[in-house]
Amino acid sequence: MEPSTVPENLNNPLNYKVIMMIFVAVFTFQIILYAIPESENEKVGLIISGVSIVSPLAVSIISFVIWRRYKGTKIFGRAYVSLGLAYLMVFAAEITYLIYHMILQIDPYPSIADVFFFALYPFTMIHLILNIKFFKPKIFQSEKKWLVIIPIPIIIIYIFTSIFLIQEEGIEYYNSFDFIYGVLFITGSTITLALAFLGVKIFRESAMGTVWLLLVVGIFTNTIGDVWYYHLEIFEQYTLFHPVNVFWYSSYWLIVYALYKHKEAI
User: Fold this and answer.
1) CA–CA separation, 122 vs 120, rounded Å?
2) Residue 4 lies in a domain
3) Contact (CB, 8 A) for 208 and 265
């Protein structure tokens, strides 16, 4: 049975060594990539694709494990199947991206893979909203403001930074598909971040507080990666070896740890 209220003042501390290990591992992986000779680029590309595929799959699997445990409950069952689907979509996107890039040798951006990538946002939002509404049915205006305060500045920074550089490159930004496309994805990413931050405000005094804090860090890391990536695509500067990948890898494994802590909290 699900609790009717959030458990108060339960101890569920984070192990900061685990968080540090996640960051050290992904940054070490990226540094190793730079040390490998260019003649091995094709093999290295497969390794990068493998990591990009396995990481969101890990989030999806552990989400479904939690869903299986609580599938008969009112909230956790639906919430965690939604989160599992969110990262299953990213897994599908990475598989599709690999097929386009490595097998068909077609530029995977834009492609059907983007449909799967974008699906991450609505499914994750459903997960966040279900949890927030159950544990706090009434959201005050002072709390709702974060849904505006967080997304708008990030979107504005992306827009004006991109416009400035587009003009520097002599491109008519209002005809740039990549620019408009990027705004769409960044909007989804930042709204997801804002909802996660709202969850932290709600759960900060409970056992769920550490879980949501870690979830916010993971989603924020993903948002940094998204903003940087869509900025890169305007100028066709993204490659499989680009360090922007570090932010996505970090995000996936931070969320895996958050899910593990969630299992401990409840």
Assistant:
1) 6
2) no
3) yes
Domain span including residue 68? 16-265
Q: Are 13 and 265 in contact (CB under 8 A)?
A: no
Whether residue 25 is contained in a domain is answered as: yes
Measured in whole angstroms, the distance separating CA 155 from the mean position of its chain's CA atoms is: 16
Structural domain total, the chain: 1
Using a cut of 0.85, tell me whether the model's pTM lies above it.
Answer: yes
Three-state SS letters, the chain: CCCCCCCECCCCCCCHHHHHHHHHHHHHHHHHHHHCCHHHHHHHHHHHHHHHHHHHHHHHHHHHHHHHHHCCCCCHHHHHHHHHHHHHHHHHHHHHHHHHHHHCCCCCCCCCHHHHHHHHHHHHHHHHHHHHHHHCCCCCHHHHCHHHHCHHHHHHHHHHHHHHHHHHCCCCHHHCHHHHHHHHHHHHHHHHHHHHHHHHHHHCCECHHHHHHHHHHHHHHHHHHHHHHHHHHHCCCCCCCCCHHHHHHHHHHHHHHHHHHHHHHC
What does each of the 266 residues of the chain score in pLDDT, given as a tens digit? 444 444 444 456 788 999 999 999 999 999 999 888 877 888 888 999 999 999 999 999 999 999 988 887 777 888 999 999 999 999 999 999 999 988 898 989 889 999 999 999 999 999 999 989 888 878 888 888 889 999 999 999 999 888 887 777 666 554 578 888 999 999 999 999 999 999 888 887 676 778 888 999 999 999 999 999 998 888 888 988 999 999 999 999 999 999 988 776 66
Strand partners, 8: 206
Residues 179 and 162 sit within 8 Å (Cβ to Cβ)? yes
Q: Does 1 map to a domain? A: no
175 is a domain residue: yes
